[in-house]
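Section 3.1: Structural characterization of target chains.
Under the original work plan, the team committed to producing a structural model for every single-chain target entering the pipeline before any wet-lab resources were allocated. The record below documents one such target. The sequence was received from the expression subgroup and is listed exactly as submitted; it comprises 296 residues.
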Amino acid sequence: MRKKDIRALIQLLDDPDTEVNDVVTGNLRKLGTEVIPELETAWERSPDHQYQEKIESIIQEIQFSNVKKNLIRWRESGAEDLLEGAFWVARHQFPDLELSETEQKIHQISKDIWLELNNKLTALEKVRIMNHIIFDVHKFSRNKNIYAPRNSYINQVIESKKGNAVSLGIVYILIAGQLNIPIRGVSMPKIFILAFMDEPGPIRSVLKGAIKKKTSQKDVLFYINPYNRGAVLGKKEIDHYLKLQKLETQSSWYTPCSNEETIKRLLLNLIISYEKSGFPEKVKDLQELLKIFVTY
C-alpha cells in the first residue's frame, strides 16, 4: 500500500465511530510491519494522549505478530539456526534489534578463541581454551539476580556478559559452532548443560547448532557446565546430580536436545522471570510464543 493511503488510514483512528475504529485497526494490523514507521510518525505529531496510546497498542500487536510468525517459520523450516531462534525471542522485547549486531559480537569472541587453537589439541584442551577466553578474557558469568529477564535475551547477555544456564549455554554453543567444534545443549531438570560430541572430521552443520543425526550417550565425550565457568563433567557427576534431585534416569537427560527444546527452555525462563517481576501482559505474550513449541 502507498504511504499516502497508509497515512489516510491512520488518520481514521481519530474517528469517533467505534465501528470505523475497529475496521481501521484491523486493516493496519493486517498490513504488518510496513505501517510501523508511519504509525510512529503519527504518534510523534499528535498531542492527543489517547490517540498515542491507540497507536502504541497497534504497533505492539504488529510487532508481536511478526515475532510469532517468524518463530513459527523458524520451527517449521527445521530450526537449524539457534541464534535466529534466540534472536526472535529477544526481538519481542527489543523490536529494533538487528541480527547482524549479535552475529558480529559472537564472531569476535570466536576469533579470539580461534587464534589460540590448533589441530593437535584434544577436545578437553579446546574446551580449556574456550573457557579461558569466554570466562576469563571476556568475563562472562552467571547473574546473581536469577530472575532478571535480561538473563534470557541474547543481545543483553552478550552486552552485559551475564546470563543464566540456558543463555550462557546458547552463547557457548554459538561460539563453538563458529569454530566447528561439536558442542550441543543438553536439557536437564533445573539446569542446562552442554555435551562435547564425538564427531570427527569437518562438521559444517555444527555452525548453526543443528543436530543432523540421532545421538546416544555413547556419542558424548564429556559434559560442560556453562553456568559454572565451563566446568567439565563426566557421566558420574550427572548421575549424582539426578540422584540428589530424586529423579529416575532418562536417556534424554544425557543426550543433546534440539534447538527447539533450547528455545523452549529460554521462553520458560522468561515466563518465570516476568511472573516474579509482576508483568502479567509479558507473561501472556510469552506463553503464546511457548505454544508454538507445544502445539504447532
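The chain has twelve helices and six strands.
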